[in-house]
Amino acid sequence: MKVTQAKPFNQLQRYILLTIGIMITAVGVYFFKFPNNFSTGGVSGISLIFGRLIANPVITPSTLMLIINAALLVVGFIFLGRSFAFSTVYCSMLLSVSMTVMEKIWPLTAPLTNQPFLELCFAVLLPSFGSSILFHLDGSSGGTDIIAMIVRKYTNLNIGTALMAADALITLAALICFGPETGLYSILGLLLKSALVDFVSDSFRTRKCFQIITSNPDPIVNFIVSTLHRGATLEDVHGAYSKEPRTMIITVLNRTQAMALRKYVHETEPHAFMVITNSTEIVGKGFLAS
Predict the structure, then answer these.
(1) How far apart are CA 261 and CA 209, in angstroms?
(2) 22-31, 159-168, 239-248 — which is least confidently predicted?
(3) pTM of whole model > 0.90?
(4) How many domains does the chain have?
(5) Of 204, 232, 262, which residue is a domain's last?
(6) Which of 142, 195, 206, 256 is the most buried (most CB within 10 A)?
(7) Domain assignment present for 3
């Protein structure tokens, strides 16, 4: 199958959004996760635990994160070769470098507040939102994702389960290293992170599926095709009670387009029957590749 290259402007947009996602993640990890020793898995969790075990003021969690990510990138190049995406290298190094810079500019010796649960919320919310932006753009911040890519290439293991198990082990190690309170907060953070990443990722992918039954389909179809620049499928139907012939219009739109279509149908064909449902998996031309 022929793959067309993205236009430079679209690539520029993509890397701007990847940078925003990484910076959101870095803020959540550095300002809320590290000061509270919240370990919810991944390279940041490993860095926290190793930082406590090493107990060297020079080798901080941010420095360890940079070292571990760099080592994983080398491993990725060895085992994945050209399939190792440049965006993974970019995001991984940007995350590590940005946290090292934050450490120099805003050194933290204690949490920002005395409310650990509040800080846990931000420690989970910001990185989860940032990661969801990366996933939506087919990006990755590297870290344990690189190991997942290698395992997926050479084995048939369930990657999601393996990564979840690894994160759980890292989180349990936090309970031993940092005590019951921090450990329990970390376990809670891991559960919240898993649910939140799925929720935000699904929100990015959600589309509105319309089924519009009407006796006058032409104005609606013209609005979908000419104004919204989307496609539609027409199907002949008839009423079970009235037995009168109708046309059902099937189309899939994003949220903005959906609001416009619903308003248009309500104003021009108030007697039309509309069924609007959400879907996160639309496969076909103009949507996900099959």
Answers:
(1) 11
(2) 159-168
(3) no
(4) 2
(5) 204
(6) 142
(7) no
